[in-house]
Design goal:
One of its GO terms (biological process) is homophilic cell adhesion via plasma membrane adhesion molecules. It comes from Ursus maritimus. This is Protocadherin alpha 11. Helices cover about 10% and strands about 40% of the residues. By secondary structure, the chain is mainly β. Among the domains are: about 90 residues, Sandwich (Immunoglobulin-like), CATH 2.60.40.60; about 100 residues, Sandwich (Immunoglobulin-like); about 100 residues, Cadherins (Immunoglobulin-like), CATH 2.60.40.60; about 100 residues, Cadherins (Immunoglobulin-like), CATH 2.60.40; about 100 residues, Sandwich (Immunoglobulin-like), CATH 2.60.40. The strands form 17 sheets. The chain has a 5-stranded mixed sheet. Strands 9-15-14-11 form a 4-stranded mixed sheet, with no helix packed on it. The N terminus and C terminus are likely disordered.
């Protein structure tokens, strides 16, 4: 009991000392810790957050997490204090077997921005495994004729620990015949054996029972024992002997069953049955007795199972040769089989972190995923090179041995490619090489980078006037290349005023369908063209939009009855002066026919009529006239200047003259014989308009009433000289016949 307490105390001291050896170091971007195996739950490993330069307050927001390939939840991190601690039982032998180096590789991943840290936790070996003998007892057949200093090999023990904890020492119980010869560190091939100190006497001591104790180098040490039963044989004093005590063989892994390994040969100097030898397998280490067979007659060793370099690199085969004497004699040898690596393991690809989906506005050099590769083979067979699908905007960047980052290399455009299927190929350096592929789908998330677009910038719409209120007149449609809410388009009017009214009082647009409605009947006489813009906006943040112009022409219908306008001319009662009563506009006929009646005061009263044709032309437009008309107009203009001068001096005289002239004109018209017609050609009378005679045309165009060239005068005066006969003349667009008998002559006035 005291020994058990002492052992427990020593174990705790060892754990404490190993905990004190826990260190942190930064090198090549990696943090290194160490922890003893079999440490209790909650055992402190290291302040990982502090050592990685992370603040405790940002562990949770940045999604601090730890990943360990194949090692589950052995280690965990307390997000409150950033301490890495032991979460479950760690068995070094279970993790790494007898490998001298044993580490747990952790990947610490934080987001915003995405970062990865590599942490290596070395698992320190403790002396938790005692030496183990493969047999509970060993039997030795030793002839009594054996000479002193003869050696008899024993099956040693094995220890699952490493280093000092696996260095075994042996002790033999006290006896007078045998001593123990143990292997030394300098020569590991030396076998554990019994050495005969003196001659055996079978008659005196036919059997000898010994206790063999194996102790490891741990503190405290752990031990194991095995019983040795020595049977002393008589007479047959020569045992079989092999040509060599040790044999070394190399085999490729994965060789076929029944593959030849080696042929052993042992000879016995005895004669007869005492010299006949049979072979047997004593043991195959480690744990591989069924992997080899031995022909008991010819000593051939062959492969009986699957040899895997990744599982075991060496096998130690103990062979015994026994003769057929009575009692039989035995000889021993060791066959060392070295397994050579073959490229029989394809690389393994693991995607440890993947940030999906990827926004199309993600900046180049952003880390998208973390990829690790491994190959169980060794040497060139285990060297792995990774490659990525060509012609994609991504690339692989090596960050650490067998670790890669999938990085965005160039800009993304979801409208061009919405999804990428990436294939990562891992190829080893074997001959022939083996490869493994891993596919990942990278979805590109939409960003509102496309404004709604109309098919054309402007549309022309024709609508009849007097439409019913709320009628559908047109539908606008815009397309947005984005997706989801970024492509959801709504429509609205670009408000403005139309005259004194708002645009929205005339038309409206449906926000979802883009249908344009006329809210009230349109009147061509009031509004011939309605021009406005419709805006299309998406639902992105921030929203994007564009405008389209609609030109709505209101078509005229016969919805207005004709209206009678007063006649726009008057004639002075006594002077015969013709003047306008109102402003002339474009609604008046371009040709006017005036019938003037002249009546005297005689008994009975006599009358005469004259037809005046007026053509309305725009202001500044030259009237159409013949050369004779132009010559007469020039002379008349000079006469009018003189008349105006005398009119100022003697207005009364002029008034009397006008009355006399009117009476003479009437008498001449009544007494003149008919010639070729009242509308025949002749020198036209000069007629000019006053300021009242001009009118406004649409868009401030002004018209003049004038019979010839020259500026307009103050009064409209009519003179009636006699006209010489002439051929038919076309006046004002109408043709007059000189032979017609009309009571009055036609005076043409060109406007």
């Amino acid at each position: 009991m005291f020994r058990c307490q002492r052992r427990g105390l020593g174990t705790r001291r060892l754990l404490l000392s190993l905990l004190l050896l826990t260190v942190w170091e930064a090198g090549s971007g990696q943090v290194h810790y160490s922890v003893p195996e079999e440490a209790k739950h909650g055992t402190f490993v290291g302040r990982i957050a502090q050592d990685l330069g992370l603040e405790l307050t940002e562990l949770v927001p940045r999604l601090f997490r730890v990943a360990s390939k194949g090692h589950g939840d052995l280690l965990e991190v307390n997000l409150q204090n950033g301490i890495l601690f032991v979460n479950s039982r760690i068995d070094r032998e279970e993790l790494c077997g007898r490998s001298l180096e044993c580490s747990i590789h952790l990947e610490v991943i934080v987001d915003r921005p995405l970062q990865v840290f590599h942490v290596e936790v070395e698992v320190k070996d403790i002396n938790d495994n005692p030496p183990v003998f493969s047999l509970r007892e060993q039997k030795l057949l030793i002839s009594e004729s054996k000479q002193p200093d003869s050696h008899f090999p024993l099956e040693g023990a094995s220890d699952a620990d490493i280093g000092e904890n696996a260095l075994l020492t042996y002790r033999l119980s006290q006896n007078e015949y045998f001593s123990l010869e143990s292997p030394t560190h300098s020569k590991q091939t030396k076998r554990l054996s019994l050495t005969l100190k003196k001659y055996l006497d079978r008659e005196k001591t036919p059997e000898i029972n010994l206790l063999l104790t194996a102790a490891d180098g741990g503190k405290p040490e752990l031990t194991s024992t095995v019983q040795l039963f020595v049977q002393v044989l008589d007479i047959n004093d020569n045992d079989p002997e092999f040509e060599q005590s040790e044999y070394k063989v190399r085999l490729m892994e994965n060789v076929a069953k029944e593959t030849f390994v080696i042929k052993l040969n042992a000879t016995d100097r005895d004669e007869g049955v005492n010299g006949e030898v049979t072979y047997s397998l004593m043991s195959v280490k480690p744990n591989g007795k069924l992997l080899f067979t031995l022909d008991e007659n010819n000593g051939e060793v062959r492969v009986n199972g699957s040899l895997d370099y990744e599982e075991n690199k060496f096998y130690e085969i103990e062979v015994q040769a026994i003769d057929k004497g009575n009692p039989p004699m035995a000889g021993h040898c060791t066959v060392w089989v070295e397994i050579l690596d073959a490229n029989d393991n394809a690389p393994e690809v693991t995607v440890t972190s993947l940030s999906l989906p990827v926004r199309e506005d993600t900046q180049p050099s952003t880390v998208i995923a973390l990829i690790s590769v491994s190959d169980r083979d060794s040497g060139a067979n285990g060297q792995v090179i990774c490659s990525l699908t060509p012609n994609v905007p991504f690339k692989l960047v090596s960050t650490f041995k067998n670790y890669y980052s999938l990085v965005l290399e160039s800009a993304l455009d979801r409208e061009s490619v919405a999804n990428y299927v990436l294939v990562v190929t891992a190829r080893d350096g074997g001959s022939p090489s083996l490869s493994t592929t891993a596919s990942m789908s990278v979805e590109v998330a939409d960003v509102n980078d496309n404004a709604p677009a109309f098919a054309q910038p402007e549309y022309t719409v024709f609508v009849k006037e007097n439409n019913p209120p709320g009628c559908h007149i047109f539908t606008v449609s815009a397309r947005d290349a984005d997706a989801q809410e970024n492509a959801l388009v709504s429509y609205s009017l670009v408000e403005r005023r139309v005259g004194e009214r708002a645009l929205s009082s005339y038309v409206s647009v449906h926000a979802e369908s883009g249908k344009v409605y006329a809210l009230q009947p349109l009147d061509h006489e009031e509004l011939e063209l309605l021009q406005f813009q419709v805006s299309a906006r998406d639902a992105g943040v921030p929203p994007l939009g564009s405008n389209v112009t609609l030109q709505v022409f209101v078509l005229d219908e016969n919805d207005n009855a004709p209206a009678l306008l007063p006649r726009p001319f008057r004639v002075a009662l006594y002077t015969g002066e013709i003047s306008t009563t109102r402003t002339l506009d474009e609604a008046d006929s371009a040709r006017q026919r005036l019938l003037v009646l002249v009546k005297d005061h005689g008994e009975p009263a006599l009358t005469a009529t004259a037809t005046v044709l007026l053509s309305l032309v725009e202001s500044g437009q030259a009237p159409k006239a013949s050369s004779r008309v132009l010559a007469g107009a020039a002379g008349a203009e000079a006469a009018l200047v003189d008349v105006n001068v005398y009119l100022i001096v003697a207005i009364c005289a002029v008034s009397s003259l006008l009355v006399l002239t009117l009476l003479l004109y009437t008498a001449l018209r009544c007494s003149a014989p008919p010639t070729e017609g009242a509308c025949g050609p002749g020198k036209p009378t000069l007629v000019c308009s006053s300021a009242v005679g001009s009118w406004s045309y649409s868009q401030q165009r002004r018209q003049r009433v004038c019979s010839g060239e020259g500026p307009p005068k103050t009064d409209l005066m009519a003179f009636s000289p006699s006209l010489p006969p002439g051929p038919d003349t076309e006046v004002g667009g109408e043709r007059q016949d000189a032979g017609s008998n009309h009571p009055g002559q036609v005076r043409s006035i060109v406007l």
